Amino acid sequence: FRGGAELLFDKKKKHEVNLPGSEWTIQKLLFWLKDNLLKERPELFIQGDTVRPGILVLVNDTDWELLVSISLIHIVI
């Protein structure tokens, strides 16, 4: 996390986590982050079913908005 978002996540830029072995999408990962790592002010991270406007999400250094759909992007763990 960078650009101030780390303040919402216990002031840490990197987190090592073990995710349950199921099929993951970016959207599922965002809600997992909110439910498991977010320490304060969820309204500054999530708005509706996606991240709040102004938060840049990168997938392999690519803006996720250039990708098809957050519900279709699968993560290989």
UniProtKB/TrEMBL annotation:
GO process terms (BP): tRNA thio-modification
Subcellular location: Cytoplasm
GO CC annotations, alphabetized: cytoplasm
Keyword terms: Cytoplasm, Isopeptide bond, tRNA processing, Ubl conjugation pathway
Main location class: cytoplasm
SUPFAM superfamilies: MoaD/ThiS (SSF54285)
Entry-linked InterPro entries: Beta-grasp_dom_sf, Mopterin_synth/thiamin_S_b, Urm1
Coiled-coil region: none
Pathway(s) the chain acts in: tRNA modification; 5-methoxycarbonylmethyl-2-thiouridine-tRNA biosynthesis
Family under the similarity heading: Belongs to the URM1 family.
Annotated PANTHER family: RURM1 PROTEIN
Listed name of the protein: Ubiquitin-related modifier 1
Species annotation: Habropoda laboriosa
Organism classification: Eukaryota, Metazoa, Ecdysozoa, Arthropoda, Hexapoda
